[in-house]
Protein: EF-hand domain-containing protein
Amino acid sequence: MSKYANHLSPNLPSTHKLTKSQKSRARREPSGVFSLFQAPQIQQFKEAFQLIDHDKDGWVNEGDLREIFTSLGITPTQATLDNLLSSRPGDTSSISSTDKGINFTMFLTMMSERLFEFDTEPELLEAFESFDENDNGTVRVEDMRRWLGELADRMSEQEIDKFLKGPFTDRQGNFNYREWIKVLRVNEDGNEPEAQT
Structure:
């Protein structure tokens, strides 16, 4: 059983026919997922979707996923591709490899699910600020390694390396948590956080 409404599926059963007025209403009424985000956030998701949609047909399908993985130097397995495509909104019980794929509304719905699983931006900032001794928006990588590997839900060395390897760690060994949170939460406004005095 899917957690998404069946009307979000690109493949409605052939017995399900919409009347002309229902089709017209469906075109006029926006999806509820668009109300979860502000316009700049939706634009960022649209740009990401367009990068993945190599053939520019408005659908991300298996071919598009293969292209994006190849451009990243990854050879995906068929199971990986099937798993990504089957996690889309709608009734997935009748999905076959010939189906269209994921459109932008489905993509946005999937992204909203993932983003709303995280704590809010102020909660994340407060958590990191408790470890930021200098109030400069960074935490020492050495300390992060120790905390992530030894406390609470421990992470493996590989997970920690993967987490800290990205663009948010500088050459001096500091993790810029403010920038990381901005990217993670797709910051609602374009404003920089105010410097603390």
About this structure: The longest strand covers residues 138-140. The longest helix spans residues 39-52.
